[in-house]
Specification:
Length: about 300
């Protein structure tokens, strides 16, 4: 029996496959955020990724953790398209926050903070649950890779105006956007639909520069840590967990590895949330989704 778990994100998609309960392989595909890419595009990427991982075999169960699926209408539409492509499979599409939480906290109360291309926090306390953030790059995603990249881009705009000094942070933006001058910078941002993943790709270097002491990057990372801390605290407060020594999972590409960002964030949360236990998932979201797919089968 072939079971498949999918972590469909704003920058990339990971597909994990097992056969008769034994893990076989993990593959990657492109970005598949239904909100930013569109439902049809996201579904197409997921379907192609599943087919590639399955290598011609027919899956019995597919469980998809989908970024950008916070709305029920989006989740339903995405599931409908994927189920059509795999009519013999049991198909579940779920918001990626639930999977991220259960990858680190399998049962019971807890919360998760996801910082990848976008940002979102999700908390569960008994029958109560609350989602904070996840509003997308136009209205939210504070502290995310996109947000960090855009802060650097805005700083580069100030350099082009003569209002800030050029340094390795702004030189990085110039290279990443292929924008050596003002006209090219404006064209990169406005001549074609903005690609959140392209802006988000700047963030890891900004975090690395901050770790080396670059002042401009450090300021951006400090602000990102504050925004992410506010996000998870809002979710904890909403379900009355903030005074209950909560377990909080860190997830998403920005929090996967130790960095100045994760250090500043942890330091702030330990000071602000009594008894907090910060954990990271032993497995990634795709593996957590795979475990849930195996239960479906």
């Amino acid at each position: 029996m072939i079971c498949i778990g999918v972590d469909a994100g704003g920058s990339s998609t990971t597909v994990a496959l097992s056969k008769d309960g034994t893990f076989v392989r993990e593959t990657t595909a492109g970005a598949a955020n239904a909100t930013t890419s569109g439902i049809d595009t996201a579904a197409g990427v997921i379907v192609a990724g599943v087919r590639s991982a399955a290598e011609g075999e027919e899956p019995a169960a597919i469980y998809i953790a989908a970024a950008g699926s916070g709305r029920k209408s989006t989740t339903h539409a995405l599931r409908e398209r994927i189920a059509t492509a795999f009519p013999r499979a049991k198909v579940v599409v779920a918001d990626d926050t639930v999977i991220a939480l259960r990858a680190a906290v399998p049962e019971g109360d807890g919360a998760v903070l996801i910082a990848g291309t976008g940002s979102v926090a999700y908390a569960v306390h008994g029958e109560r649950e609350h989602r904070a953030g996840g509003l997308g790059y136009l209205a939210g995603d504070e502290g995310s890779a996109f947000w960090i990249g855009m802060q650097a881009a805005k700083l580069y705009g100030r350099v082009l105006d003569g209002r800030a000094n050029r340094d390795e942070t702004t030189d990085l933006v110039s290279r990443a956007l292929h924008a050596p001058d003002r006209d090219a910078f404006i064209a990169a941002l406005y001549d074609a639909p903005l690609q959140p993943a392209a802006i988000a790709s700047i963030a890891p270097s900004i975090i690395a520069f901050a770790g080396k002491g670059n002042r401009a990057s450090t300021k951006i990372v400090q602000q990102a840590a504050q925004e992410l801390g506010d996000l998870i605290k809002a979710a904890l407060k909403a379900v009355d967990l903030i005074e209950a020594s909560p377990t909080v999972a860190f997830a998403g590409g920005l929090l996967r590895e130790n960095s100045l960002l994760s250090f500043l964030l942890e330091t702030r949360l330990i000071g602000d949330v009594p008894g907090i236990a910060i954990v990271k998932a032993a497995d990634g979201p795709a593996r957590a989704a795979l475990r849930l797919a195996e239960r479906l089968g």
